[in-house]
Amino acid sequence: MRTPSRIAVVGGGITGLAAALRLRDQAPAGTRITVYEQSGALGGKLRTGSLAGSPVEAGAEAFLMRDPTGAESAMVTLARRLGLADALVHPSTGQAAIYVDGELKPVPGGTLMGVPGDLAKVAEIAQPAAERDHDGGQPLIGPDEDLTVGELIRRRLGDEVVDRLVDPLLGGVYAGRADGLSLVATMPGLARAARTEHTLVGAVRAAMAAAPRPTGAPVFATVAGGLSRLVTAAADAIETPDTDNAGGVSAEIRLNAAVRELTATPTGWRLVVGPARDPELVEVDAVVLALPARPAGRLLSEVDVGVAALVGGLDYASIGLVAMALPETALPALSGFLVPATEGTLIKAATFFTTKWGHLRRPDGMILVRASIGRYGEEHLLQRPDDELVATVHRELSTALGTALPAPVETYVQRWGGALPQYTPGHPDRVAAARATLRAEHPTLTLAGAGYDGVGIPICVRSGETAADEIIKALEG
């Protein structure tokens, strides 16, 4: 690696922080790292708020403990690196429900994102068209084929499985619809199995068998006191001086520092930072773009038009979160529930925080509930005034629970514009093509984040770390 090297990380969400921390830990002495965050706060969609005196997430709520191989997830490893391993807490209950036909019905077991491996287990919610899932003597999909989740499942098991099971589960993760989301991008394990299995039920079973989880081990975790603790700890670790080595790695984080332009130079990259009336020109050797796809695409337009088109075409769904603190009220022993779009409600999911997370239970009996609203294409619904959203959520929760909930003591509304990427068929190939071009033509520029590699905190952490590793390797060459 050239010494000293200057590396810019554009974006201060969890992906950018993970990239900067990896660089901080592993780049050679003399490296200088700067994180540029356009807003006034780090963490992106990791944001802990306060509701009636309790910490409640205003963004992402939890993360997976393990990755698809069964190994410890990148987020758990990061928490350990930051000294927060002892602060990880797990749900008190993992049983959720689906609200269909005016009733809360338990999410059936033995499914993969709602796709059943045992048709009998889903009969209470959906009636699969079992006769369609016959063995045709060949794999379900071709070796390079990608299609929407809805297309495959409707063809093999009928509409009810999609509309009542798969759609609400996918909607809870992506705020999208099964008929628009890529099978390969959103359910890669099922896609791999579908390339060899001849029935969908067989593919589900094969996919589940290929990703075993330790019996009794917790699936999810969060950080006691809120995920913002992790953001703060990461920022502190990035900027902590290297006291063991006077010529060691140095790093700084700059807030309210929007990167407006990115151009290649003979020796690296030039960034234009700050407002147009008072721009700052910054020269660096390498750049990690840890931004959502659309703003990344705009910056890439001066680097490679083809790559910019591949990246910037990704669409996003906007969502809203409505949280309420309610006086002591009996709730079902559930972590929450999901709602199919066919039910016609504003709510697409609800979480009973003080039931799901034992560490949030209060001696005064106050309960904390959060509803997620807004599916892809429903951005107009989020434009309603806060009080109208709160009233609608309160009414729909009361209806779903079959009881008139008391008036909330305190509420908040959080809107996330362009929150969740919508991976259409071919997404992984488009990302691979964009990265291959950059690797060949501009190896000191890398892409990281949910817009490329998938949603979920561990995936974003791993994406940032991988991008940092690639930068170190490119500079060493």
Automatic annotation (TrEMBL):
GO molecular function, one term: oxygen-dependent protoporphyrinogen oxidase activity
Cellular compartments annotated: Cytoplasm
Pathway: Porphyrin-containing compound metabolism; protoheme biosynthesis
KW Cytoplasm (keyword) present: yes
Enzymatic class: oxidoreductase
Family designation: Belongs to the protoporphyrinogen/coproporphyrinogen oxidase family. Coproporphyrinogen III oxidase subfamily.
Name of the protein: Coproporphyrinogen III oxidase
Organism for this UniProt entry: Micromonospora sonneratiae
